[in-house]
Amino acid sequence: MTRTVRGARLLITGAAGGMGRMYAQRAVAEHAASVTLWDRDAAALARTVDELGAISKGRTRIHSYVVDLADLGSIAKHAQQVRREVGNPDVLINNAGIVRGNEYFWQTDNGEDTRPTMQVNALAPMYVTREFLPGMIANAYRAARVVNIASAAGTLANPRMATYAASKAALIGWSDSLRIELEQADHGNVKVTTVTPSYISTGMFAGARGPVLAPILEPGYVVDRVWRAMLKGAPRLELPWSVGVSRALRGLLPTRVFDRVVGDGFGVYRSMERFTGRR
């Protein structure tokens, strides 16, 4: 892929606000051929479409669909619409996610917490990608990208967010496996980038405290780094650098030593104690 997404078709999930909207703004600024927005918030989606339309001035086609990513039927239905009305995307950014936290696992309501968290964070990216990946592969002469926004929580166990950590660990395992499968099958035009950021100040993790060496990240910085990694087809992006160090230490240190040094010493295991999330 070139240094921009000029002329490419993008599809972004969770695109009505936050970082999803910022990815869409970046695509419009680079004169993408089309940007397709998926979100379940119809009102916010309409506002984002109006904003992007004003910015693009007709250079980029903006399409939006109200999609419940927790519903496999909704994903399949709207994927079929996108292929028919817009065309298969060249770039897919699996950005949508939810988080429930600040409770121990046994205090949560499995129906209200576990199921939707796993459906949106882990299963939806698999279902969405499965819908569009065959088209990406078939267009072998055009560079294609799949970006999966996971989390550092998927690489490092953290109390008070057990289900969220599990959903992101599942996403990372699948994303890395998909990347290797595409390489083994010689589908080199499709690159998969797995992103594992620490806490980002979007409101999603309001109240969470950044551990030592892992300050709360600014959305604009993360979007810029993800964008550059996507264009390069980088296999993994860890933000900040300490996420990779923590992952390495987890493999080197005995479990109890890691708990004391990194979990307690660096404040990782206390980072969700004041979490409130979006109200």
Automatic annotation (TrEMBL):
Entry keyword Thylakoid: no
Pfam annotation, one family: adh_short
Record-linked SUPFAM superfamilies: NAD(P)-binding Rossmann-fold domains
Keywords: Oxidoreductase
GO MF, one annotated term: oxidoreductase activity, acting on the CH-OH group of donors, NAD or NADP as acceptor
Gene3D superfamilies, alphabetized: NAD(P)-binding Rossmann-like Domain
Cited InterPro entries: NAD(P)-bd_dom_sf (IPR036291), Sc_DH/Rdtase_CS (IPR020904), SDR_fam (IPR002347)
Record family assignment: Belongs to the short-chain dehydrogenases/reductases (SDR) family.
Protein name per the record: 3-oxoacyl-ACP reductase
Source organism: Agromyces aureus
